[in-house]
# Entry
Amino acid sequence: MVKAKTAPLVETSFTGFPKQTFAFLSGIAAHNEKIWFDANRDLYEAGYVAPARAFVEALGPLLREVSPSVQFSSKVNGSLQRVNRDIRFSKDKRPYKEHLNLWFWHNDKSWDTPGFWFGLGPKEVQLSVGMYGLGKERLDSFRQSIVHPRSGKALLAAVADVRKAGDYEIGGKTRKLMPRGFTADADRADYLLYDGLYASATLPAAAAARPDFAKLAASHFKKMWPVGKWLLDEVAG
# Structure
């Protein structure tokens, strides 16, 4: 009688990013080359893919308590971004990312939608909410929402809520000159210099090893969410 093979056990619960995660991230930062990656593929699977998938499954439901329409998938090319860099049009020819990057999105899965962003490196964790860059159509909608009295005041209230909740950065300002054809009241005119809008927090990498890290991350995302909600309601809804 042939005994059926049993499927390997898959880690489904998140108890913090393990030491293998930091070993892989430190290693790929020091040896960003295919030879090293191929020799450490087991470390990649154990330290990068497996714990990231478990983290997505733990964090995703917590984020749905913040924003019920948020989407996530624990697959590579779902919430888990590929470790390979797209170097076709880049002067930087390093083949691999040196951070573990995740995202949780709204609406259709594209970069032109607000979401929750996560980046883990050897030394720090970056948590962000919002949109890093706005496409042409979204950018016009963003500016119109800044100018409009109701949605413009709602933006100021959202930013105030985030700043009141903690030491969070409000980013996205890239321009030096006002876009042609747009003016706004002085209290919000500065946001016309933004080509994206996001709130972000930086934590030490050691925080990601905590067993309760999914809850910790969710608490920060919740405090920063007013900026994301404004974008979802007024710009990309």
